Every structure is written in structure tokens, then in C-alpha cells.
């Protein structure tokens, strides 16, 4: 698997799984009916943020990550990131590779830590992955997320010092 800079031409490959993940309403706080053009602007963000895709040896997009400053001004030394893996390619280490990549990017950019603001507590695979890479749950916003199956569940704030 290769992780490379995302380009606008990657959007047609990202959009189908992006749309499916968002509309499922289980992991992101994005509007469920987020349209293609708005979604592109939300995900393919300009510098100093960075967006990458993980591709296989045929060039198929397996997943994507967005890296950014978590806050502005005096909080701009903390990085954030978001990940989406095509469900057709889950269980192959794509999410782990993307997360490791973003941590190394943040470290190389001089960030002091990474913070995830809204990890849905029922997204147990993501929580376990982040914990395995050294992230800790700093706190949980009770009932901060309306899950389509589980109802109101918590949103974890997760952190890793770099």
C-alpha cells in the first residue's frame, strides 16, 4: 500500500465510500445528507492542512486521511486528523497505516500532540486502533452523538503527546 497526497482527481473514488460512511451516521458528526460538492470542500482542504489517500498497487483508493491544526492561535500546536476507509477494504491495515502516517506527519511538522475531538464511543474498532497507537481518552461528552442504532452515545476526546 502506498500513501500519497490526495488530488482533486481522487474525489470520484473517495466520494462513494465517503457518502456511505457519512449517511450511515455511525462515526462522523457530518450532516447525513451532505452533498458531493460540499463534502469535497469539507474533505479536500487546502494547505496548511493535508489530505492523503492510501492506494493499492493498482491505484485503487483504499482510504483517505485529512490532517489539520486542531485549533487556531495559541492552540495551533495541536494537530487533528480524520480517517475514512472504504468498507470494501477494511481489515487490511489501511486505517492503521493512515493513522501512523498522520502521527508522523504531525510530529515532523512540529506539533506537540494530536487530539481527536469526536470519536464515537460505539466505534470500538477506531477506539481500539487509536488506543493501540498510544492515544488516550481524556474525557467523554455524554450523549454527544445520536447513533442510528444505539441512540445517544458518548463522544470521546482522544489525545496523544508527540
Structural features, described:
By secondary structure, this protein is an alpha+beta fold. The chain contains four helices and seven strands. It has a seven-stranded mixed sheet with strand order 1-2-3-4-5-7-6. The relative contact order is 0.16.
Outline the secondary-structure elements.
Layout lengths: L1 E4 L5 H14 L11 H8 L6 E6 L5 E9 L8 E8 L8 H15 L4 E8 L3 H9 L3 E12 L3 E11 L1
Parallel strand pairs: 4-5
Antiparallel strand pairs: 1-2, 2-3, 3-4, 5-7, 6-7
Provide key terms for this protein:
single chain; 162 residues; alpha+beta; seven-stranded mixed sheet; 4 helices; 7 strands; 28% helix; globular; GNAT family N-acetyltransferase; transferase
* Quaternary organization: single chain
Indicate the overall shape: globular
SS-based class: alpha+beta
- Show unreliable segments: none
Q: How many distinct helices?
A: 4
The whole-angstrom Rg is 15 Å
For the largest beta sheet, what order do the strands appear in spatially?
1-2-3-4-5-7-6
Terminal CA distance reads 25 Å
| Sequence of secondary-structure elements | EHHEEEHEHEE
Strand content: 35-45%
Average pLDDT taken over every residue: 96
Approximately how much helix is present in the residues? 25-40%
Major sheet size, sense and barrel closure? 7 strands, mixed
Number of strands: 7
Amino acid at each position: 500500500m502506498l500513501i500519497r497526497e490526495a488530488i482533486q482527481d481522487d474525489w470520484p473514488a473517495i466520494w462513494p465510500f465517503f457518502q456511505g460512511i457519512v449517511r450511515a451516521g455511525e462515526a462522523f458528526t457530518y450532516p447525513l445528507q451532505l452533498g458531493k460538492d460540499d463534502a469535497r470542500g469539507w474533505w479536500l482542504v487546502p494547505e496548511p492542512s493535508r489530505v492523503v489517500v492510501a492506494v493499492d498497487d493498482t491505484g485503487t483508493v483504499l482510504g483517505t486521511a485529512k490532517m489539520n491544526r486542531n485549533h487556531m492561535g495559541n492552540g495551533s500546536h495541536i494537530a487533528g486528523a480524520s480517517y475514512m476507509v472504504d468498507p470494501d477494504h477494511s481489515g487490511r491495515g489501511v486505517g492503521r497505516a493512515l493513522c501512523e502516517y498522520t502521527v508522523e506527519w504531525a510530529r515532523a511538522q512540529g506539533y506537540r500532540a494530536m487530539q481527536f475531538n469526536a470519536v464515537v464511543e460505539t466505534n470500538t474498532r477506531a477506539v481500539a486502533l487509536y488506543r493501540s497507537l498510544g492515544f488516550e481518552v481524556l474525557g467523554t461528552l455524554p450523549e454527544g452523538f445520536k447513533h442510528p442504532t444505539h441512540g445517544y452515545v458518548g463522544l470521546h476526546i482522544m489525545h496523544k503527546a508527540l
